[in-house]
């Protein structure tokens, strides 16, 4: 594979704000993001959903723009403006032609520096988010995953829903919104990343005026920096109106920076991370029991979860659960064959390269590596780490992950007469 040239530059302002750029000279566009270490796991007790609520509220108006002007200004240059809240961070990002980067950054910086949080907007946005919660509750796959997550991390902020609950959203007050915003949205808690036809020198000029004058403040520690304990709870929710049973399983896995993360990625790929995976080939192709079946890793700074999802009819629910547990058992019992290991590695390596083809993906990758690792990995380094994984590593990881007593499961659907028992998960 041809060695890639690293064109990443990093700069830390005197107030603690971190800037990272990656120059992609063949591109005519730029993706830029402002990342705040203010995800849902850092929310104060009783204010679940406030990180996501703040993300929504900044778009309602600032001291310089109302909501319509924010949208029109980005549309006028053909740009894409987006934002999201996760468990450990909030992102505000834009993608524009390189010549329009000043416009995009001016809008983004205005969002995170000058929101008004008007009382009437807070009242309206509560209703919007309540509708978002209802929409998620009406999606059985989403409901199954959310129920699984809440019970897996029970008693810890990682288990709390990012959207909040109906009760917590209704109770949010402007004073709490302003307090959390002022506490979290500080230079030392913020990372700005940009990728595409952009240089650090140009970004510094854009950042200097809105951010350079901000005073340094200590980085805010999360309200929950203790690693969570997992809970192997078995939960069912009877929904007679549904056509399918939505099955989700979870086991503890590794944090983002764990040295075993590459073996975990290979294991996940073999289990259910691709069309050639064991779950897909067994449950969908050979048995014809599900249309959607897959596994995925959900790693965080100090914890992780490997989950499996399958949607099937009520009559085949037990059979699918036993089939999933059977794949867990097989991965523990026998090392993967050389050809299967080779295929998983190549699939991961190819997916990695393809996932970094766009400025938006590169911009997000810069933020993730800065926030979680404090350094930047080349594609060659990542490929070498994937290549170093052995069949023994995969088997040892499977033995560690797939402990029958640590498997959590949630089934949502028309479940009359169904009992979710641990012997269905024997592996």
What would you note in describing this structure?
The chain has 427 residues and is an alpha+beta fold. Helices cover 42% and strands 18% of the residues. It has helices at residues 50-57, 67-75, 101-113, 119-137, 140-152, 166-170, 174-184, 200-212, 261-272, 278-286, 317-333, 338-355, 359-372, 379-387, 391-401, and strands at residues 8-12, 18-23, 29-36, 80-85, 90-97, 190-196, 234-238, 245-252, 293-299, 304-312, 408-413. A six-stranded mixed β-sheet has the order 1-2-6-3-5-4, sandwiched between helices. Strands 7-11-8-10-9 form a five-stranded mixed β-sheet, sandwiched between helices. The radius of gyration is 23 Å and the shape is globular. The two termini are 40 Å apart.
Q: What is the count of DSSP helices, taking H or I runs of 4+ residues? A: 15
Shape: globular
Pick out the low-confidence regions: none
Q: What is the CA-based Rg, rounded?
A: 23 Å
Structural class: alpha+beta
Describe how the helices and strands are arranged:
Blueprint: E1 8-12, E2 18-23, E3 29-36, H1 50-57, H2 67-75, E4 80-85, E5 90-97, H3 101-113, H4 119-137, H5 140-152, H6 166-170, H7 174-184, E6 190-196, H8 200-212, E7 234-238, E8 245-252, H9 261-272, H10 278-286, E9 293-299, E10 304-312, H11 317-333, H12 338-355, H13 359-372, H14 379-387, H15 391-401, E11 408-413
Parallel strand pairs: 2-6, 7-11
Antiparallel strand pairs: 1-2, 3-5, 3-6, 4-5, 8-10, 8-11, 9-10
Helix pairs in contact: 1-7, 3-8, 9-12, 9-15, 10-11, 11-15, 12-14
